[in-house]
Fold:
Amino acid sequence: MAAVIALAEENVRRGGGPFGAAVFDCADGRCVAVGVNRVVDGHCSHLHAEMVALARAQQSLGTHDLATAGRFVLFTSVEPCAMCLGAVVWSGVVRLVCGATGADAEGVGFDEGPKPADWPDALAQRGIRVRRQLLRPRARAVLHAYAAAGGWIYNPQRGRSL
Structure:
């Protein structure tokens, strides 16, 4: 998780959003792919860190379903938004590990979308184990620093905010 949060911190330093993610192989701990938020510079609303990391992992392994290539875990600096939650379900990962909470992201103005309150249980029912709030204070600090510096916070309910 520390590496994923460091990705988010570095992305902010380079002008990107405060989110990082990485896919690791459960068998040997090898990092298969990383992703950072590229929404603004990529001019594409779905270039969230999780989406980028999952797409790169699938491309690297030559499959649209990570479950066919082994057992993989997605680490993400912030719990997934509604869109990324759907991607987690279809990606083939067997585990999700999160830093900051969705409420932390919403607290600085981001819109996490319509997620069910019991989303961790819903993932567990699909065989995806969830661990939340790993290194949460450090992950939350990235969000707060980004907002305090005037970073672009897009909220479709309000347009650009903060």
User: Anything to note?
Assistant: The CA atoms of residues 100 and 140 lie 5 Å apart.
